[in-house]
Amino acid sequence: MYAFEYHRPSSIDEAVALITSDDIQFLSGGQTLIPTLKQRLAMPDALVDLGGIEALRGIRREGDHVIIGAGTRHAEVAASDTVAGAIPALAHLASQIGDAQVRNRGTIGGSVANADPSADYPAAVIGLGATVRTNRREIAGDDYFQDLFTTALEPGELITEIAFPIPEVAAYAKFAQAASGYAIAGVMVARMPGGAVRVGVTGAAPYALRATALEVALAADFSPAAAKAVTISADGLNSDLHATPAYRAALVSVLAARAVAACGG
Prior knowledge:
- Keywords: FAD, Flavoprotein, Oxidoreductase.
- It comes from Roseospira visakhapatnamensis.
- This is Carbon-monoxide dehydrogenase medium subunit.
- Its EC number is 1.2.7.4.
- GO terms for molecular function: anaerobic carbon-monoxide dehydrogenase activity; FAD binding.
- It is a single chain.
- The chain is an alpha+beta fold.
- It has two domains: 45 residues, Uridine Diphospho-n-acetylenolpyruvylglucosamine Reductase, domain 2 (2-Layer Sandwich); 207 residues, Uridine Diphospho-n-acetylenolpyruvylglucosamine Reductase, domain 3.
- It contains twelve helices and 14 strands.
- The chain has a five-stranded antiparallel sheet. A four-stranded antiparallel sheet has the order 11-12-13-14, sandwiched between helices. A three-stranded parallel sheet has the order 1-3-2, with no helix packed on it.
- The chain is globular.
């Protein structure tokens, strides 16, 4: 580690006011940022710890949405009766993140802001058509993830909460890297009120995206067989020591089929 200033504000306005340059960063759960600091891959002049801002925490239902504060920890989402009652797939997803230590420190806002290509929550943001709310505006989930570790957030912009529409039925399935729990590929399938089908994919590409070919197939026939029959292109998919692009492409269809089966399709 190295010397830097540390701030722990008690309000959103105070936190945002402290971001006076690109060399000052927000700190939420710290599950990515702290290891990055230790390796000196990032060396900010100051950290603004969001952990003391109660307004960023909490889960509530508002009409046909579940609203989750950005500072809410993964374990809280996984254990929430509100989430389990309205979107059980989201509670299940949260329960699959990392390990117990990560789930009790990491936050949903930190995960979505970091936009790791193998993180789980991005599949839910895309698959459920969530809205990312910040201190300045609302960002549609479809517009939020833009490239590898790149989002629509502007400098100094802070995620305050995420609004998830409640689907008719949804499920999340992933193929996890054994040591880290990160998704080699993860798929959220949701059938929304009115019958529209959304499929959000994480882990397979540089950033979370919709699998439109699967959406079209499942809108016509919401069944595991229909999902398996879809051929996903490997073009542009991730390649690393864990899986080739072709393997990830095959996983997306298989995981989508599993998710549909879990939905009862």
